[in-house]
Amino acid sequence: MARQHKHTNIEHHFTYFKLLDALKTEFCPICFILNKSSWDYFDAFLYEGVNDPQLRERIRKAKGYCQSHAWQLSQCGDALGATIIYHDLIQQLAKEINLLAQRKAWKKNNFPANVIKGYRKIKGNGMNSNECPVCKHLVDVEQSYLNLLIKHLTEPEFTAAYRNSNGLCYPHFTLALTLEPDKHAFDILGEKEISILTTLQTELAEFIRKHDYRYTKEQFTEGERTAWLRTINHFVGMSWKEFQVHPRMKEKAEQLQLTIEQLSRIIERQKKELARLKSIESKTDSLPGQITQQDKNHSDER
């Protein structure tokens, strides 16, 4: 039987629950959604958008993707789709460079601004580029889900989920405040942020203290061991390197790793069994020789 909810507006049917699910992860929920949205963008694009003329023109104007999203594309498992896109971009770039060569416009002062600007766009890194199609898409997703979070934050179900979550990273916390939440929502955000900072401060201090020679016998807790990484994550948000492995590829890699481990265990068992059989065979082979020698001794005695 489907769960009954007080709110029945359309947002509660998809994006609301998507945000609730993101609150259950170890990451900032907005960072987590942006991560998934970037993969969803590429999955949809590679499935049905590679040959769309309007999308291709948009990519050409943007000089392709920023550095992070270009490498993310390489991890989507669609070499043909990526090849079609970058073949198009290479052709465009070759035309521009050939035109420069014909005009002999290689000097810095004569080098067209749009080419230099294009290079800067490409070197953008994860949502720092205003032109990368994926970056632009993620900015819209980010704004949409932050608005959704503020809208529902004071509802009892959502409030409980947020308080039980790991909260927003600091960048998304500050962005949420720019949306001017009401006093109740502001208090919920502030209380959670103070709680996060207090926990991190305590665990970081303990990590430092236990490195003192006087306390080296004290064991680190899991929280203390990971506090420095979680602090970095809180300051800057979910690492963009997380985007470099497609969830589908990660799942396959984990399955493959499991298969390799299973095979390793089987091989190890077979090695032990082979060694046992060889030991038995060795003992069996030596038995007739021993009997013969004994018989010879008996004969000599006679």
Task: Note down, in words, how this protein is organized.
The protein is an all-alpha fold and 302 residues long. The chain contains 12 helices and no strands. The chain has helices at residues 15-22, 29-48, 53-61, 67-74, 79-103, 113-122, 133-152, 156-163, 170-178, 183-209, 222-236, 247-301. Residues 1-8 and 118-126 have low confidence and may be disordered.
List the helices and strands and how they pair.
Elements: H1 15-22, H2 29-48, H3 53-61, H4 67-74, H5 79-103, H6 113-122, H7 133-152, H8 156-163, H9 170-178, H10 183-209, H11 222-236, H12 247-301
For this entry, give a set of tags.
302 residues, mainly alpha, 12 helices, 71% helix, disordered N terminus
User: Which structural category fits the helices and strands?
Assistant: mainly alpha
Biggest beta sheet summary: none
What's the number of extended β-strand segments? 0
Element string (H = helix, E = strand):
HHHHHHHHHHHH
Spatial extent as radius of gyration: 31 Å
Query: Between the first and last Cα atoms, what is the distance in angstroms?
Result: 95 Å
The number of helical elements comes to: 12
Global geometry: extended
- Give the proportion of residues in helices: over 70%
Proportion of residues in extended strands: under 5%
The whole-number mean of residue pLDDT values reads 78
Q: pLDDT under 50 segments (min length 5)? A: 1-8, 118-126
